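Thread: quick sanity check before group meeting

JM: Hey all, I'm pulling together slides for Thursday and realized we never actually wrote out the predicted structure for the chain we discussed last week. Dropping the sequence here so it's in one place. If anyone has concerns about the input, flag it before I start.
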Amino acid sequence: MKYVYAFEEGNKDQKFLLGGKGANLAEMTNLGLPVPPGFTITTEACKVYMARGDTMPEGLMDEVAGALDTLEQNMGKTLGDVTDPLLVSVRSGAPFSMPGMMDTVLNLGLNDVSVGGLAKQTDNARFAYDS
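JM (edit): ok, ran it. Output follows.
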C-alpha cells in the first residue's frame, strides 16, 4: 500500500485518499499553478495508524524519507541545513473541512543553528527569528 503521494501524483478526485487540502494542492499543481513542491501522507496512513493502536504503518517512514529526499533535491536545499535550510509547512487535512482541524506547523526545519543560515540568507535576522 502506498502512503505518500507527491503533489503531481494526485488530483481533485482523490480527496478521500489525500484529504481536501492534499487533493486540491495536487489539482493546482497539475493545472500548472505556482504551488511549491510537496507531498501528502494519505488518510489511509492515519486509518492504519489508529487501527494498529497508534503504531506507524510499516514502510511509512521510508516513504516519507524518500519524498523528503526528492523535495530536497527539487528545491536544492536540505531540511535543517545551517546555511540554506529547507523550510516546510505541515497541515492536517480530512476529506471534508472540519472545525478545529486548522493545525499548521510552519517553518519546520528551523532550529537554533539553521535559523542563523536563514538570517544570513535573507539579511534579516528579525525575520529569521520571527519565523
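AS: nice. The beta strands are 4-6, 39-41, 78-79, 85-86, 88-91, 104-108. The chain has a mean pLDDT of 91.
JM: adding both to the slides.
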